Amino acid sequence: AGNVVIAQADAFAGNRITLSVYDIMGKSVIVPFTQQADKITFNPTSLAGGLYLVKFNINGTLISRHFVKTE
After folding, report:
1. Window from 1-5, 12-16, 33-37, 46-50 with minimum mean pLDDT
2. How many other C-beta atoms can be found within 10 angstroms of the C-beta atom of residue 7?
3. Phi, psi angles (nearest 5°) of residue 10
4. Which residues are registered as beta bridge partners of 30?
5. pLDDT digit string, tens, across residues 41-59
6. Is the CB of residue 54 less than 8 Å from the CB of residue 21?
7. pTM of the entire structure?
């Protein structure tokens, strides 16, 4: 459970969400995710350490957040 990122928002519930993850250089990286009601969960263990941008597309509305993956 310590190797997952959980994003939770009321806006996720009942909406179709797509998730895009980008490294610091702007390259898209594939990170499978699951959605359960108002929670999005993904496992970043396959990513190299560094800063990442996550974009959530909620019915056409984009929300961006950052996270840091440590080695």
Report:
1. 1-5
2. 19
3. -55, -30
4. none
5. 998 988 999 999 999 999 9
6. yes
7. 0.83
